[in-house]
Design goal:
By secondary structure, the chain is α/β, with parallel strands linked by helices. Helix content is about 35%, strand content about 15%. The protein has 14 helices and twelve strands. The chain has helices at about 15-20, 65-75, 75-80, 95-100, 115-120, 165-180, 200-210, 220-225, 255-260, 260-280, 280-295, 300-310, 320-330, 350-355; strands at about 40, 55-60, 85-90, 110, 130-135, 140-145, 160, 195, 215, 230-235, 245-250, 310-315. Strand 7, helix 6 (about 165-180) and strand 8 (about 195) form a beta-alpha-beta unit. The longest helix has 20 residues, at about 260-280. It is globular.
Amino acid sequence: MPAPRTTLRRSLAAAALPLLAVALTACGYGSEAKDDDTKKSDVAADAKKLSTDTVRIGYFPNLTHATALVGDQEGLFQKELGGTQLKTSQFNAGPSEIEALNADSIDIGFIGPSPSINGFTKSKGKSLRIIAGSASGGVKLVVNPKKIKTLDDLKGKKIATPQLGNTQDVAFLNWISEKGWKVDAQSGKGDVSVVRTDNKVTPDAYKSGSIDGAWVPEPTASKLVAEGAKELLDESTLWPDNKFVITNIIVSQKFLSEHPDVVEAVLRGSVKTNEWINANPDKAKASANAALEKLTGKPLPADILDPAWKSIQITDDPLAATLDAQAEHAVKAGLLEKPDLTGIYDLKPLNKVLKVAGKPKVADAGLGVK
């Protein structure tokens, strides 16, 4: 499954937008937190404020948002913000987070590629910018080992994806196409039956035998393995350098323009959090799970947490070429016409932070602000 790198230039057809809008945020995998859950971080009494009193950040209570979970849990974002207070909100779906950004309810968000593309194109390039990466990977094909032993055995079987047009659905449709098999993208019928199933109910669907496997993100994949499924394919193996964007950081263009110092502080917090996570994976895993317990009421058990954590790569790089490729795959599947993604990235603030930290700059794949 080669990742095409051509820059997309034509506008997204209005009829295709609803299909992209239904995409999960690449990370909202059955979390139970509500959209209006909010928490303010403690601010030192003598801390100096930046250009605004508060910055509002949205994210998902899921492992693929580990940067947000750990950065908030460990106070790393608040440390960089000084007297500017961090306020967080949790979301379960990409469209609701984009709506919150557009309604000026949040300023910055951790979110997946499909809703980022959708939010940008629906606003004709005026609503948001992607300003950093956060996570790569964490998506697997897991199957019933009694029914499926090799990839060729998928033909004629029922395989779940989270939702029509979402990031994993598009990836699976593209993989099917690369195999030379035919599936109608809308109905999911064909050489493989693609069954769109909410991640919250996928484990039960697997146990009941109504599906034979699933192309799903973590921790759903590890939940299925805990139920007896077998990992047959890690999607990261299909991408150059085994990396593809699953979570990135967006900001409203208005907030970026009015408070660049705050955006830069959040990015410093993100870079330092990612560095700490990668240097202390076990401590970071425990920190993320502690944050999940606070947000959802229960931690992930070790047999799910451990394999899920290992499959996710934490990164500052937004892996822009892979977002471009994911949009190409949706076009190839017939789910949308080519969007113009020029200007979806503004990586100048991140590259400034990375330079100060002595880290290499990251690229926008030709999709940056001109």
